[in-house]
C-alpha cells in the first residue's frame, strides 16, 4: 500500500482550481506529489495508524453553523473518516466561530510556520448524503449541527467520483445489519399517504447511510418559483428550465493600486425566455432532523433576471476552464415599447 495507480490518481487530483485563492499552507499541500503526499497524510492528518487514503478532492465547502462563509478545502477520504483541510483564513472570517473552532494555536500566525485547521467527520458518524440538482454539489450530514458540510464541487464529474469512492469505503465498515425490510408496494415505498407528494429518491447503503437524490418535483418547484419571479409574463406549462449551474458572478473593482475582482457565488438558471441569477442556500435544505425552526432565508433568492430577447451580445474569454462569459443586455426603459407601437400603428 498504496498502489502506483492510486498514487498517480491522487497526484492528478491534487490541483487547486485556478480561479480560487488559498493560503500558503494549502499551497504547500497542493505541491506534494505521490509518496510525499501519502506520507504527509499519515504523519499530519490521519488519526489511526492503519487507515488508508482513498481519494483526494479540492472543493469549496460550507458549514451549517456558518452558512454565509464559503471556504476552499482539500477534502481527503480515508477508510476511517473524511478530512477537510481548511484555509486558515476561514478561522478569522466570522466572529461567531469562537465556540466552533479551537484557536489555541493562534500564536503561530506571525512565524514562518503555516497552520491549517482540519475538520474531521468520522465515517461511523455519517448519517446521510444529499446530492444537489444536476450533481453540482452534495451535503454530508452527521449527528449534529456541527457535522453538516456541503461540498460545492460545481462539477458533476467530481461529485459522482467522490460519491462512488465514499460508497466503496462505507462498504468496508463493520456495522450491525439492519432488520429485514417488510415488503412494500410502490405507492407506500415512494409516496406519502398524508400529502400524496413523491418523496426524494433514497438509496440506503449497506452501511445504513442514506444517499438522497432530488426527484422531478424539485425541478417543478424551481420552475414555479422562476415563473413567479417573471411576474406572470409567461405561462407555467411552457416554461422549461434549460440549464442549472453553480457559477460565480465577477465583481470588478478598479482601485488606485491594482484592479481586483471578487467572485460572488450564484446559481445561474436559463429558461427559454429569461436568464436568472439566484442566491441559493446550499446547506440548510432539506431541513436536518434536529432543526427546530426553518432557516432564516429562503432556498432561492432572486439576485438578477433579464429577458433573452434583450440580450445584445455574449463576450467569451480566451482562457481555459473555468470559462468567463460576459452578457451584455440592452437597457431599454420601456421594454415593450416596440410591441406597443406596432399595436397602435396597425390596430384600429
TrEMBL record:
Domain PLEKHM2 PH: 114-178
All copies of domain Nischarin C-terminal PH, residue ranges: 241-347
GO biological process: Golgi organization; lysosome localization; regulation of protein localization
InterPro entries reported in the protein's UniProt record: PH_domain-containing_M2, PH_NISCH_C, PH_PLEKHM2
Keyword Cytoplasm included in the entry's annotation: yes
Keywords (A to Z) from UniProt: Cytoplasm
Leader sequence residues: none
Keyword Protein transport part of the UniProt annotation: no
Full protein name: NISCH protein
Organism: Chloropsis hardwickii
